[in-house]
Amino acid sequence: MPDNADILRLESLQVHFPIQGGMLDRVLGRPVRAVRAVDGIDLNVGRGEIVALVGESGSGKTTLGRVITKLAQPTGGRMLFEGRDMTSVQGSSALRPYRHRVQMIFQDAYQALNPRHTVFDIVAEPLRSLRLVENGTQLAERVSEALASAGLNPPGDFFSRFPHELSGGQRQRVVIAGALAVRPELIVADEPVSMLDVSIRAQILQVLVDLRDKHHMALLFITHDLPLAWLIADRIAVLYLGKLVEIGTADEITFNPRHPYTVALRNATPQIGGNAGRAESPALQGEVPSAARVPKGCRFHPRCPLAFDHCREEEPPPIEVGPQHLSACWLANDGRSRSS
Amino acid sequence: MSDAIVPYSPRGRARAIKGFLGQFLSYGGAQVGLVCLVFFLVVAAMPNILVGPLQTAINATGEFLEPPSSQHLLGTDEVGRDVLNLVVHGARISLTIALLATVISLVIGTTVGMTAGYFGGPVDVWLMRLTDFFFVVPSFVLALVITPVVLEVIGRGRDILGFRPSLFVIIVVIGLTSWAFVGRIVRSQTLSLKERTFIDRARVAGSSNLSIMVRHLLPNLVPQIAANGALVVTGAIYVETSLSFLGLGDPLQPSWGTLLSLAQRAGAASAGAWWYLGAPGLCVLTVSLSFVLIGNALEDTFDPRRRVIP
Amino acid sequence: MTGSSQDKAPLLEVSGLSVDYGLKGVSSRAIDSVSFALRAGEAVGLVGESGSGKTTTAMAIAGLLSPNARVSGGQVCYRGNRLPIEDDAAMRPHRWSETSVVFQGAMNALNPVHRIIKQIAEPCMLKLGMPRGEATARAGELLELVGIPADRGAAYPHELSGGMRQRVMIAMALACRPSIIIGDEPTTALDVITQAQILKLLGELRSQLNLALILITHDLSVVAESCDRVMIMYAGRIVEDGTVAEIFAKPKHPYTRLLIDSIPNPANGKKMIRPIPGDPPNLVNRPSGCAFHPRCPSAMGLCATDVPSFDKFGRSRVACHLHRSSQEDKVAAHA
After folding, report:
1. What pLDDT score does B222 carry?
2. What ipTM was assigned to the predicted interfaces of this complex?
3. Homologous superfamily, domain C4-98+178-334
4. Which residues form the ABC transporter domain (chain A) (predicted)?
5. Rounded to a whole number, what is the largest CA-CA distance in chain A?
């Protein structure tokens, strides 16, 4: 269970990608437009905590994951890891201590593995690059240990195999083993099971949950699937168009959502045995607007069934609606629950 | 846990190479190309054993422009030298020039293309302008300009890295004028490889830019480089032939191009001395063709769409 | 279409269909003795993991098998007539006019250099012989039908969002008034909310136009919400087939049960994952007997040797030795 000390803290973190304007725009001094992929996010992850980031495509969830793993550079705000400001640290040698403690699991294991490297080389890469082992014996030991933790047994059988010689589930286990090898404290998992067959998903989720339970690793689980987030996470953060709209414990978000977007997301999710909320609330119209044209006021208002004038003018701040439960909606504390 | 540890062995790599060779050799083109190439390489490796020392006007063994006979299998030239002797010695010069020029071309092209593609931004822009420049520089003009300068500086008799200056110049000129094509191909391939997730993974694993380029990009570029390298050799052979034909070759170390040039000047065509023009011409054609065949087979072997992935 | 007798007779009947793929001299069976019937207006979900043969089954019905595929047994009948599913040219009059396919990747299936209205009008001109003006008018109607304002027809595919493109694909599929729509993972690439919109649209069109729908998907919960019947495929065979209500409430095949258990379902409140051990089967080396036996928690000796045949339970059927024995036991107990 989570400790009090946060391992990761994001303070109004921002990632804006400038849109290349034409020569004419520059001459005329037109303002540089930007894709506001991540637009001011506050989030903390405790030690050994599993936090799920839920959102549709364009919500900025993947960009946020890339910022935390230092694959993208934030354009504003701060990112603190164990209290140290990591916002502007760059370069492979300066980042070595950070990489040692923060690792990533990728969505498409086939893409994430170099087709010309063997499983051993793939899992050994972080250990070699981060200089965590002294000799070959130690290296082989650590690689075996990581493969075994990821459920590839016996590890020696996989050493000299190439990615294309593995099944989809085994490939994802190799990616996990590569992240585990350095014994990190935080793992960012970007849709780690969405490309896998249903029957394999549960196996991989089991491996991830075991990591937290046995090694006390914190996990930031990025997904578009609310039930999956409910299953694996302690807390769920819902993203819409680069901003957190709601955050709370997994049960609160699933059974007592207080933001109309979360409600819409829940109701749109197909479920075995039918989705109880579906019939009562109308399906959301339209699609997520482009992050280059974020609507004024509450960014959800053009699609929101409950929007009123105030929503079009001013963006709502996160409002506390319960213990550990925040919702960025003017109606969040409107007495009645949004779930009905 | 310790009982599960198996010492790492390069078994996987050996298996992969074996599989690759097996597939490569299954192409008819690759077989023909390899046989031809090996034949010429053997010939080029030991000309003295096969046909004796290079003949000059002084130690020429035959009459003038003698047609092929049992004595002179490929006839003789206008000063009585044995054409077979000349062609075999020419193989050595031609192949050396072509292969060394290719090495230069591939090294520069790969480095420039990979750096431009990987770093992008201004690095890419400037390196690509440089590539464009070398793309349009005609090798003939460059050779015509450089050769006299080098000869002036070094002197005709000295040698550079074991080559006579004029040969060295030709190697450098061909290398410098043919890498732009390689650079463009490598850059475009790098651009698409760079977007692959395994590059991100390598970065998260703490690998430096250099290590990502050497350990992740380069091995995935090898197929492209190898397949195009074979075409670069072909190009180099032709450029060398043309340069020598124009008289930029070294008459003391005759290549096939030089021989063609000499034959032309001796009026071999009008004199009906088909053997004098035909022998070096056929050699150029055969070697070029075998490289093209090998290049195509390499490309087919590497093409992931044809590779069997279980 | 309106006659009640026609509604009762199956619109499409697949019997004993087997398809082999030949790759480098190795032949592997993609689907094995697949039989089922589809009635007019019925929505059937074809569910399976990769390699289960669900896509091959659907492509065989539409006559869109790849050149290295070979029908090695069985037949497909449409309104009582045998379809020449192996002959691409002979299937052409049938395809689009009777059976249409909506593919997963809408971007790849649309031509990027033509306006969408033109691409929808084209099948109307080619198949129905409409003059250009009439075809364009019909294309506009079709766009409205799938919830796109007709004036958006002037857009190019890249100007539309993923959900809109999928709607265009559906409009194209409807162009020649087919009676069967095959959706090959039509919502897999879409976001949850867009997926709900598309599934709703398909449901509406189905009742409006009395369309039969074959929905191919790996996602059981999508089927649970949008189909009447579900067929579960594993390693090229149908292992269970029945109404959605029956199968999700009381799955009989161990594979179906495990599959349902491995989907997180907040509705039942149980936060647990039950992994199915092992890997999906390899088609070149298919396990003997029941293909699921190496992963099955209830496997018996018989399962490794004998291929289970179907047993009927009301409106559903299941291919599992477990149920056969229990039935026989019951019979024995009664006797």
Report:
1. 86
2. 0.86
3. P-loop containing nucleotide triphosphate hydrolases (3.40.50.300)
4. 8-266
5. 67
